[in-house]
Sequence to fold (100 residues):
Amino acid sequence: MHSKGFVFATVLLGFMAVVLTTLAYFRGDGAHIEGLKSAFRLTLNILPLIFFAMIIGGMIQILIPKDLIMNWIGSGSGIRGVVIGSLAGGITPGAPYVSY
Fold:
């Protein structure tokens, strides 16, 4: 089951996509088509990264005990958790795309 925050974020992103596509359509120069083509190309480029990242995430959940992960990066881990989380986030393939 998805959390309310996840559902809200999904609805918000969907709404923004519709609004921006509509604005591009009303420019009248085919910008909405170019935007959708660009989104499709980006999706094709990112999809393999997301696929393998999800496999890695799933395997980590199965192979590393939850208590150990909470000890490393949980609320009581302090600065060590921030450093570990930053390093892990920095080496994941999605990080550059999220910041772009």
Observations:
- Residues 1-47 form one domain.
- The chain has a mean pLDDT of 87.
- The longest helix spans residues 31-63.
- DSSP finds five helices and no strands in the chain.
